[in-house]
Amino acid sequence: MPHITIESFDTSKMVFGHYGETELIFISQDLFSTDEMLGVKVEEEMFLLHIKKAKRSWLLKYDKVTRPLNVNLVKQAINDISQAFELKVLNSNIAINKARTALASAYEKGIEDFTDIEFPFESVSIEVGFGSGKHLIYQAQQNPNRLFIGIEIHTPSAQQVLRQIELQGLENIWVVNYDARLLLEMIPSNIMHRIYVHFPVPWDKKPQRRVISKSFLDESMRVLEQSGKLELRTDSHNYFWYALNTFLGEGITKTAVEIRKNEALEITSKYEARWLRQEKDIYDVYVTSTNLSEPRILDFNF
Length: 302
Hints:
24% of the residues lie in helices and 29% in strands. The chain has 302 residues and is an alpha/beta fold.
C-alpha cells in the first residue's frame, strides 16, 4: 500500500487547509506512542494518514481502518501533504494513476452509511472476509430477494467484486471495505438472517487479530434474527477448537451450537478445492441466535 519514508520534521508547523486536491482537517496525537494521525479529505472522501515515527526516519502511510476503497485517493493525499510541507522524502512507492477504477459505486458502502440506514430488502445476510467473492456472488444469485453485505479489508478483493456486481447486473450486494468487528456494532438488532465467516485467517501467532472472539459472538447474536445463524467454516484445526472454546467457554450462559465435518457446499473456492485435494479436513460450526435482542443504541456523544 502507498507510503513514503521521510526525515523527521516539526509537525506543529502543519496548518489546516487545502493543499492541492487534499484538505488537511485535523492532527491528533496517538495515546500510546509518539505517532500522529492526520485527518484528510480528498474528493469528498475523509480518511486518516498515519505518521509512524522511528529514530532514524518516519513513515507517512495510510490508516488501515479508515482507508478509502480507491487507493489513488491515499496516494494523492500523501503526495499533496509531502509537497505542501516540503517533506524530505527518503523513499517512496507512490505513482498516482489518474484513471480511476470503474466501480459499481452504488453498491459500495462506507461505515458512515450505517449510522442511520434503511435496508432495501426485508432479509439481510453478511459475509465477513469474502476474498474472491465467489461464495458471496453465488448466494446473491441464488437469493435475489435477500441483501448480502460483503465485508472485506483487502482492497483489491473489494474492487474485484464491485466489478463483478456491475458485469453481472446484481442489485442485492453491498460491499464494505472495513473491519467487520467494528461494522457489526453499527448494524441494527435482530435483522440478519445469516453471518458467514468462511476460512478466516487463523492468526496462530497473533490470536488477538482473529475475527472470532467473545465480543464478535455477542454482536453477531445481537444482529441476528431469532433462529438466524453465525456460520464458521475453517480448515484450521487450531481455529476450530479455538472457536468452540469461544462459543461454549467461560462466560457463555446460553448457546446453541452445531458442528459438521467435511460437509460439501454448493460452491467451492479455488483454495478450498486445493485443500480438499490435499485431503485436509474442513470444519463447520453453526451458532444459532435463540433470543430477541434489545434494540441497538448508538451514542455519538463523547
